[in-house]
């Protein structure tokens, strides 16, 4: 499909620079067969049915952005996928000043050697020393806010909390599963009281989620692989919910992509552990997904293509036009939508 089909007008002031406070006070646009409904996230228990199962991503964001030097050259690196105990694939700024075998000093006693430059310009970085890489990143790294926010303000101490979900448990993501940022313990308790259950899976979100689609046709775009896991007990819970007539509703496109990667043609979810680079565009037949809660995405993005596949492109263009006109806040720190096909 032509990527231009997924373009729309988004005024830059609609991109949120801070999250709503309280978290469940963000606005919620419900999109279903009855039309468009303006709500807030704390209304969610009344929008779902007893027996529905929400699926959250329990990945935890690591401080994956690094600034360093190779000689007199400034080098920036954004880690996006672990390749070994001390080895990460990274997108590099000022990559023309970097060669295989060069050492980069990131300060705070953190040094890495670059190698294996890929066609996309990324390098493998092998961190030196015996300390766990997570400790090195805690010293030298910064939270990797999306470029649409970072271009307008610096990362600060608030982001260390704001950019983690209440489910964050498994370190490894370089971007938050942002639809889950809207949840609080109180909201989760109210959902449970309404008969809406939840489960967690793990997908370590990579920086590739921020990359623009440069191809003119969706067939020519390639997704970066991300590592994920669904264990047997979680798969059993997902399948039981569907067998009992409930809807399995991922919270966030990351949860949805892993869920669909693990689902068979008949919708049964199998245990899964490994990489997925699934790219969902209109025409895709969803196997296990009964709905989606997600934030508002950018024009021409793979994420807007995904929601168009779930709900229909024309319907989503109409929903997004409504969101823009009614001043919903977009992207990682923005408001949410509940999509019920």
UniProtKB/TrEMBL annotation:
Keywords: Cytoplasm, Isomerase, Queuosine biosynthesis, S-adenosyl-L-methionine, Transferase. Pathway: tRNA modification; tRNA-queuosine biosynthesis. GO terms for molecular function: S-adenosylmethionine:tRNA ribosyltransferase-isomerase activity. InterPro entries: QueA (IPR003699), QueA_dom1 (IPR042118), QueA_dom2 (IPR042119), QueA_sf (IPR036100). It is found in: Cytoplasm. GO terms for biological process: tRNA queuosine(34) biosynthetic process. It holds the Pfam family Queuosine_synth. It comes from the Bacteria. GO terms for cellular component: cytoplasm. SUPFAM superfamilies: QueA-like. It catalyses: 7-aminomethyl-7-carbaguanosine(34) in tRNA + S-adenosyl-L-methionine = epoxyqueuosine(34) in tRNA + adenine + L-methionine + 2 H(+). Monomer. This is S-adenosylmethionine:tRNA ribosyltransferase-isomerase. It comes from Sphingomonas lenta. The lineage of its organism: Bacteria, Pseudomonadati, Pseudomonadota, Alphaproteobacteria, Sphingomonadales.
């Amino acid at each position: 499909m032509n990527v231009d089909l997924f373009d729309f007008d988004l005024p830059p002031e609609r991109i949120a620079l801070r999250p709503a406070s309280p978290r469940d006070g963000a606005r919620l646009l419900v999109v279903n067969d009855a039309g468009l409904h303006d709500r807030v996230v704390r209304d969610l228990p009344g929008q779902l049915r007893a027996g529905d199962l929400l699926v959250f991503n329990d990945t935890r964001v690591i401080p994956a952005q690094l600034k360093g030097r190779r000689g007199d050259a400034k080098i920036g690196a954004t880690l996006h996928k672990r390749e070994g105990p001390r080895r990460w694939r990274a997108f590099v700024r000022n990559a023309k000043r970097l060669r295989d075998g060069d050492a980069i000093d990131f300060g705070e006693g953190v040094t890495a050697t670059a190698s294996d430059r890929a066609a996309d310009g990324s390098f493998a970085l092998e961190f030196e020393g015996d300390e766990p890489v997570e400790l090195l990143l805690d010293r030298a790294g910064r939270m990797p806010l999306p470029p649409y926010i970072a271009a307008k303000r610096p990362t600060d101490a608030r982001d260390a909390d704001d950019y983690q979900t209440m489910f964050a448990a498994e370190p490894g993501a370089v971007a938050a599963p942002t639809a889950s940022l809207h949840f609080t313990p109180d909201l989760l308790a109210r959902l449970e009281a309404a008969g809406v259950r939840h489960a967690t899976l793990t997908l370590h979100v990579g920086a590739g989620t921020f990359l623009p689609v440069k191809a003119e046709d969706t067939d020519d775009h390639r997704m970066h692989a991300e590592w994920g896991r669904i264990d047997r007990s979680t798969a059993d819970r997902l399948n039981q919910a569907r067998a009992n007539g409930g809807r399995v509703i991922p919270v966030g496109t990351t949860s949805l992509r892993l869920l669909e990667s693990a689902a068979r043609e008949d919708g049964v979810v199998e245990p899964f552990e490994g990489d997925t680079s699934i790219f969902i565009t209109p025409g895709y037949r969803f196997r296990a997904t009964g709905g989606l809660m997600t934030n508002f995405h950018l024009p021409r993005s793979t994420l807007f293509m995904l929601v168009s596949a779930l709900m229909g492109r024309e319907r989503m263009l109409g929903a997004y036009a409504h969101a823009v006109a009614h001043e919903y806040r977009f992207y990682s720190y923005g408001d949410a939508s509940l999509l019920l096909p």
